[in-house]
Amino acid sequence: MFTRLAYFIIVLGIGIGTIVLCRLTQLPIVEGASSWLTAPVQVVVGYPVRAVTEIYQNIQGISDLRRENARLQAEVDQLHQQVVQLPEIQRENAALREQLDLRRSQPSFQWTTGRIIGRDPNPLIRAVIIDLGSRDGVADGMTVMTSQGLVGRILRASTNTSKVLLITDASSSVNGQVQSSRARGVLSGSPAGYLTMQYIGQAETVHSADKVVTSGLGGTFPAGLLVGNVIDVRQKDVDMFQEAHVEPAVGFDRLEIVLVITNFLPTKLE
After folding, report:
1. 34 Cβ contact partners less than 8 Å away, ≥ 6 residues apart
2. Phi, psi for 246 (deg, rounded to 5)
3. Cross-strand bridge partners of residue 163
């Protein structure tokens, strides 16, 4: 009986004490004392929390800056690439305009535009590979040129590509004539890259800077295509013929785009 009474008194006391304590905390003095007691705890606990928050915000800011820097760097790289590509585009446009002018000046020819995609690895052979083949209407023997002048002829056409023998190759042969005097001869290539025009009659007149064009003899190339310009003339009284060194009109070391005449095939001489 005593135990139950004691237990009731303890519970009642705790309840009354709790009510009194709640009332007391509403008093200004008690509230101030409570704040004074808890303030150091709040400072001690709050400082690490703020520090961690600031560190997180700084890390987030650094991450944002890195992403922004990466984006800006990508834009700079893209602009730099565009600056590099611009002269190439301008150069290609100029070449295409020249080809268009050539097409208009030679309406009797049908043309197909091709690009140089390779060169013959044999240093003794002056030939290039273009990205045109039989599927493009290209066949063996067709004439290849640019707006500057004669390049060569199709040596061998496959389905997608073709090998072009340049007029500067030692095995190449072009029947040509001096445009001003109509003096005729045969042009062949040389390892040095220039052309030699042989079998020019001794009575013919040939001067430096004279233009040499295809004569059309033999039916290998159309007549009137520019081959090059005379550099110098060799003439000896004891020789039956004179010969001339001719600089090709086409810069073969910088050759990139060519035209193939698809409606002219070499004449097969019986």
Report:
1. 25
2. -125, 130
3. 129, 156
DSSP result, 140-194: TT-EEE-SSSEEEEEEEE-SS-EEEEETTSTT-EEEEEETTT--EEEEE--TTS-
Bridge partners, residue 173, by sequence: 188
| Distance of alpha carbon 125 from alpha carbon 212, whole angstroms | 24
pLDDT tens digits for 172-193? 999 999 999 999 999 999 878 8
At residue 171, φ and ψ (nearest 5 deg) are -90, -5
C-alpha atoms less than 13 angstroms from C-alpha of 181 in its C-beta half-sphere = 16
Helix (H) or strand (E) holding 81: helix 28-105
pLDDT of residue 232 exceeding 80, the answer is yes
Model's pTM, two decimal places?
0.66
Pair of tokens at residue 88? 């190439």
Helix (H) or strand (E) segment spanning residue 128:
strand 127-130
| Count of CB atoms situated within 10 Å of the CB of 64 | 10
Say which residue, 176 or 12, is predicted with more confidence: 176
- The alpha carbons of the chain give a radius of gyration, in whole angstroms, of 46
